[in-house]
Design a protein that fits this description.
This protein is α+β, with helices and mostly antiparallel strands. The chain is 20% helix and 36% strand. Belongs to the ATG10 family.
């Protein structure tokens, strides 16, 4: 099943409306390409979340507060991928001191439903790549999963 860019925009607007109705803080954003003037519309969300120490592999002892809870800033972007005619989800996570979570930390936080996928094929489940219009930012991406 493929999706046109117009359909993606329509679904993104519906998603945004639903997000507003449940106070989930997704936003519609636009990025204007300085090279050709085209505009890309995408969904974005930024949220502080907390994770238990057992969820993370790294030892982050510099944080205040409860010893086993660590605040992590999470930023999500959903963009249309014209090559595959489907949405792509990018995300990035960092500690409050600005240090990015490692890919191993991200893999360790995956819901138990998907743990088997991570164990057998982790490089094709979540991977890291450059976010194409914010070149300075390297983000993680969920690899496209087709469900039929």
């Amino acid at each position: 099943m493929s999706l046109t860019y117009k359909e993606f925009i329509d679904y993104a607007l519906d998603f945004k409306n639903h997000s507003d109705s449940i106070d989930d803080d997704w936003n519609i954003c636009e990025h204007k390409n300085p090279m050709n003037g085209s505009t890309v519309i995408y969904l974005a969300k930024k949220k502080m979340q907390t994770f238990k120490k057992t969820s993370l592999n790294s030892n982050q002892s510099e944080f205040q507060g409860e010893k086993n809870i660590y605040p992590v800033m999470c930023e999500y972007h959903i963009l249309y991928n014209s090559s595959y005619s489907c949405p792509d989800m990018f995300f990035n996570m960092w500690y409050t001191d600005g240090k990015l979570l490692s890919l191993e930390d991200i893999w360790s936080m995956v819901h138990s439903i998907f743990k088997q996928n991570i164990e057998h094929d982790k490089w094709n489940f979540i991977t890291q790549k450059v976010f194409y219009f914010l070149i300075a930012i390297s983000e993680y991406t969920l690899v496209r999963i087709h469900m039929f």
